[in-house]
Design a protein that fits this description.
- The complex is a heterodimer of chains A (about 350) and B (about 210).
- Chain A is built from 10 helices and no strands.
- Chain A is an all-alpha fold and about 350 residues long.
- Classes of the chains: A mainly alpha (about 350), B alpha+beta (about 210).
């Protein structure tokens, strides 16, 4: 089937998008490789700066937040009235800090695109992942710190192993997504009616004016248990996704928790970690919404034939699935390198 | 096109996340002279409360609520070994040419219970002693911005056994230009910072300039 100008442009745009994404992520992952604390304890997040003009300002603000947070824990020790300032600071820290690496933004955006899920679901995943990170930090410090009285060196090693496991899980998820996507393409090009595996790609409609909503397949060609399949799949995807992001706790939360523990106010640290997660979830959700808006414009831009719109969406999802797999592998290798070092 | 722009919006902010300090160090340093030559630099790095509490976690073996030098020995060893990969964040120049330090000696960690501050003490001996009459510059900073270094307000740099007539100048760090900052932040963790960039960044580091005519 011949593609007209608009569709050619659409395909070129898709290629541009993925090329820039891959380039961006490669740079990010490479500079994160073998990130090591100069003091041998603690898990730093290395990163790439591209902002112009306000880099120095952002640096200053993030640093100030971190210091204020420690101060707030100390204040809380003196007087419980400091509770509100602790809550606000923790929340704001989460909001700003999530702009940094390690909070699963790129992963969640890619996953949402790969699975074709709604933005609402993506937002729910963002908050769930943020909470998982908080829980991980709390469990790590609660068990390792309070219970087992582990040293900072042991805690650092533990955190690195957790991180490694998380990225391993993400790799498996990426593989699953890629395989699903491959099956969709196979079905699409063979022209047979889409079945459960490739429910978002329509190979058999040749009515140009027939409208399809690409988030839900047309009911008349597929089994009655479609929604059930989607739901089960959704949950089975969501859990490894949330856990894989959650296994890498936020360094800020870890330090605050240890400080709270050392000062005998661990509950305050726990509260702070959860409040931070709220802020983090919010920031990451914003990225999901932006990505969702981007994806929603695709059917708007591609007029006429559903087959091409379907193909565009399938390409987008396929590339996003590859991205998730790529993240999993790259981050796993980077984390493994950090451990072996 | 709109989708492409939205993608850019999503991707680039996530990359613009800047590294920020997780550790703050207040430094007191000594320049050690011997027979008219500079032979080494001794640092006392006091860490911030957050890092101090984290680092000493689980090291109170005898449970007395205090962390003795012996109890902190292993951590000090880990610190020094890790810092060697980062050149101890200390750079020294003789007449504008960079010189090297040998492996550190006399290192230990000290814990102050009442303030909750952990301090790392160590000496960086020079590979080759430097004539005190040369233009000597010493810079202390972390190009990766993980550690924030400041010299202490009181007695930031002391001179041990100096020759006569030493002119000491303390230079506080200025705000780094964003372009330089970004260039530094792009260097991978396992790569050395190129000398030229180091020199440029040094202008914004904590610096000590000294020259003695005695």
């Amino acid at each position: 089937m011949e593609m007209d100008e608009k569709q050619k442009r659409r395909r070129r745009n898709n290629i541009l998008i993925f090329a820039s994404l891959i380039l961006a992520i490669s740079v990010l992952v490479i500079t994160n490789a073998f990130a090591q604390s100069p003091f041998g304890v603690g898990v730093p997040e290395r990163t790439v700066a591209t902002n112009t003009g306000i880099t120095g300002y952002i640096l200053q603000q993030q640093a100030e937040f971190h210091k204020s947070l420690i101060g707030a824990i100390r204040d809380f020790k003196e007087s419980s009235w400091a509770f509100w300032s602790l809550a606000l600071l923790s929340f704001l820290y989460g909001v700003f800090h999530a702009a940094g690496p390690g909070h699963g933004k790129a992963i969640l955006v890619s996953y949402t695109l790969a699975s074709g899920d709604t933005v609402k679901k993506g937002v729910a995943l963002s908050f769930a992942a943020a909470m998982a990170q908080a829980v991980c930090a709390i469990l790590l410090i609660g068990i390792a710190g309070a219970f087992l009285n582990m040293t900072s060196m042991a805690i650092t090693a533990q955190a690195q192993w957790l991180e490694l496991a998380g990225w391993g899980m993400l790799t498996v998820l990426g593989l699953v997504l890629v395989l699903r996507s491959a099956r969709s393409f196979a079905v699409f090009f063979s022209g047979t009616p889409a079945v459960a595996a490739g429910h978002n790609v329509h190979g058999h409609h040749d009515h140009p004016h027939h409208h399809h909503d690409h988030d839900h397949c047309c009911g008349h060609d597929h089994g009655p248990d479609r929604e059930q399949t989607e739901t089960i799949r959704g949950i089975m995807d969501a859990i490894p996704l949330i856990v894989s992001i959650g296994l890498r706790p936020c360094t800020g939360a870890v330090i605050v928790l240890v400080f709270a523990l050392a000062n005998g106010v661990l509950p305050a640290g726990i509260f702070s970690a959860f409040t931070m997660a709220l802020g983090t979830g919010l920031t990451v959700s914003l990225f999901i919404v932006a990505a969702g808006a981007g994806r929603a414009t695709i059917p708007l831009l591609v007029s006429g034939q559903n087959r091409t719109a379907g193909l565009a969406i399938a390409v987008l999802k396929g590339a996003a699935a590859l991205l998730v797999l790529y993240f999993g592998i790259s981050l796993f290798i980077a984390a493994a390198g950090g451990l072996l070092y | 096109m709109r989708a492409f722009l939205v993608f850019l919006l999503v991707v680039f902010p996530s990359l613009s996340a800047v590294a920020h300090p997780h550790v703050w160090v207040t430094a007191n340093s000594r320049l050690i002279f011997d027979g008219g030559n500079l032979v080494g630099v001794r640092h006392a790095w006091a860490f911030d409360l957050g890092y101090s509490a984290f680092a000493v976690q689980g090291l109170d073996e005898n449970g007395d609520g205090d962390f003795s030098r012996k109890e902190l020995e292993e951590l000090a060893q880990v610190n020094v070994e890790s810092l060697s990969e980062f050149d101890f964040f200390t750079y020294i120049f003789e007449n504008e040419t960079e010189k090297t330090f040998a492996t550190p000696v006399d290192y230990y960690l000290d814990w102050q219970g009442d303030s909750g501050v952990l301090t790392l003490h160590f000496t960086l001996p020079l590979e080759k002693p430097m004539r005190a009459s040369a233009d000597i510059a010493i810079e202390m900073y972390d190009p990766t911005i993980f550690v924030d270094f400041r010299f202490a307000e009181d007695n930031p740099v002391a001179l041990d056994n100096p020759p006569a007539n030493c002119d000491l100048k303390m230079i506080k760090p200025q705000q780094m230009e964003d372009s330089l900052l970004e260039a530094l932040l792009q260097i991978p963790a396992d790569m050395d910072v190129p000398e030229e960039l180091l020199r440029q960044a040094g202008n914004f580091a904590n610096a000590v300039e000294i020259s003695c005519t005695g």
